[in-house]
Amino acid sequence: MTTFTKAKSKWAVLSMALSGLMLAACNNSQAPADAETGAAEAADSAGQTIRIATESSYKPLSYTDADGKLIGFEIDLIHALCDEMKAKCDISSQEWDGLIPGLQAKKFDAIIAGMSITPERLEKVDFTDPYLNNGLILVAKKGENVSVKDDFSNIPVGAQRATIAAQYIEASHPEAKVSLYDTQENAYLDLTSGRIRALFSDKVTAAYWLTSEEGKAFEQKGEEFNSDDAMGIAVRKGDALAGKFNQALAAIKESGKYDEISAPYFGTSNTAAAQKAAAQ
């Protein structure tokens, strides 16, 4: 779970923080469709209306501007994918907890909402090839003496509900009395107000928040961890739409469109360079 034009200097900070996030097409969790099948699937999607659900409190991936318009990296990615497939995008913002149940109930056709590919979720839905890599970080106030190795039984800590971060705390810190939030924004509010002293969060959103006015008094504590996390597009089990998205995703990476989309958000216009940096 600021605008991108306020200051160029922010992108330099964000670039350093997010250098390991971008993922090239070769790092796929599922085998891509062959060329003949992919071409047929792409042709089948022409003119199709694809209902896509997102969760709009997850800067910089998906959120709303002052006018209530959905913006962010994933919103731009959705439009690029639908353009490539010659399909119509119908994007709606949903509550995080209702995303997979809504998909299964056929309220929408796909989820593009910073959703990590996990074994538990794969029991319920299918995922496309990853479109972004992610990791976890611990965020706390500057000067706060706290680390991921601490005993959190007496340290108020938070995470967004039903996320990799929340699962990590449950598995690694069973002693913790954790506050779980419906959105990242509400977690940040409690962190800034002092209701919690630390926050476990996806790096992709927390690193962006740390560059904001609200986040300037806070910092990442220690190194990124759990960095093998990959985000994919979720579809219903057995839905051929996964193959169509895979074909479109590969095409926009090959054409350079993916880099063009990612540059304003992650401070790099070269996916391969970012991937190389992440491997070092």
List segments where confidence is low: pLDDT < 50 over at least 5 consecutive residues.
1-40, 269-280
User: Number of helical segments?
Assistant: 11
Query: What is the strand arrangement across the widest sheet?
Result: 5-1-6-13-7
Mean pLDDT: 84
Number of strands: 13
What is the rounded Rg?
18 Å
What fraction, in percent, of the residue positions are helical? 25-40%
Distance between the termini: 28 Å
Q: Which outline best applies?
A: globular
**Main β-sheet description:** 5 strands, mixed
Structure summarized in a few sentences:
The chain is built from 11 helices and 13 strands.
Q: Can you describe this structure?
A:
- Helix content is 37%, strand content 23%.
- It has 11 helices and 13 strands.
- The strands form 3 sheets. Strands 5-1-6-13-7 form a 5-stranded mixed β-sheet. A 5-stranded mixed β-sheet has the order 10-9-11-8-12, with helices on both faces.
- A hairpin with a 3-residue loop joins strand 2 and strand 3.
- The longest helix has 15 residues.
Describe the protein's topology:
Elements: H1 8-17, H2 35-44, E1 49-54, E2 57-58, E3 62-64, E4 70-71, H3 73-85, E5 88-93, H4 99-104, E6 110-111, H5 119-122, E7 125-127, E8 132-141, E9 157-160, H6 164-172, E10 178-181, H7 184-193, E11 198-202, H8 203-209, E12 218-231, E13 234-236, H9 241-255, H10 257-266, H11 271-279
Helix pairs in contact: 2-9, 3-9, 3-10
Q: Which features would summarize this protein structure in a list?
A:
11 helices; 37% helix; disordered N terminus; five-stranded mixed β-sheet; disordered C terminus; 280 residues; alpha/beta; globular
